[in-house]
Design a protein that fits this description.
Layout lengths: L8 E7 L5 E6 L2 H14 L5 H10 L4 E8 L5 H14 L20 H13 L4 H13 L4 H13 L4 H11 L7
Length: 177
């Protein structure tokens, strides 16, 4: 097995036909591209504009490129910089200004009401509920894995910025994460 060290970078997914781009940041480029491609191919990407373009034009029209390699500490700043350039030209698929992932996407009260209504109308059959229950039981971690996760979480350092974000979320700001 080849041991490869992930390299943090800013990347883009470019629609060669329209010139529009999706800018992103990652610490592991190969895994991130596989994730985008998988979600786009299955029609479940979180960026609806990018997903619609992928559905309309097909995979062959899109290219995945590295814009720049950067230090992890600079990822947010550099992502914001590149998104701003393409948004000024109206060539961006990005839904936010960057730097935070989908966490910066805030829904209006009307949009939240639509989501709530759609969830209330959702009907899940007893058979589906049974399958979901069985599936969740199969996916539980072993005692050893849970112990390791607990130890890792106890060693984790949470910055003041992260604490403030959590505080804001708990105060009722609805954000996609």
């Amino acid at each position: 097995m080849v041991n490869r060290t992930p390299i943090p970078c800013i990347y883009l997914i470019r629609n060669k036909k329209s010139g529009k781009v999706y800018i992103g940041k990652t610490a592991d480029l190969r895994t991130r591209w596989k994730s985008h491609k998988s979600k786009l191919s299955r029609g479940c990407h979180s960026n609806v504009h990018l997903q619609r373009a992928w559905n309309k034009y097909g995979a062959k029209v899109f290219e995945f490129k590295v814009l720049e390699y950067v230090a992890v500490e600079e990822l947010n700043e550099r992502e914001e910089y590149h998104i701003a350039i393409y948004k000024k030209r109206n060539l961006s698929y990005n839904l936010t200004d960057g730097g935070e992932g989908n966490a910066g996407r805030i829904f209006s009260p009307e949009h939240r009401a639509k989501i709530a209504e759609a969830n209330r109308r959702r009907i899940v059959s007893p058979e589906t509920r049974r399958k979901m229950s069985e599936s969740s039981k199969e996916q539980r971690h072993s005692e050893e894995t849970r112990r390791k996760i607990g130890e890792a979480n106890r060693r984790r350092v949470v910055t003041e910025e992260t604490r403030n974000k959590i505080r804001r979320q708990r105060q009722g700001v609805f954000r996609i994460i």
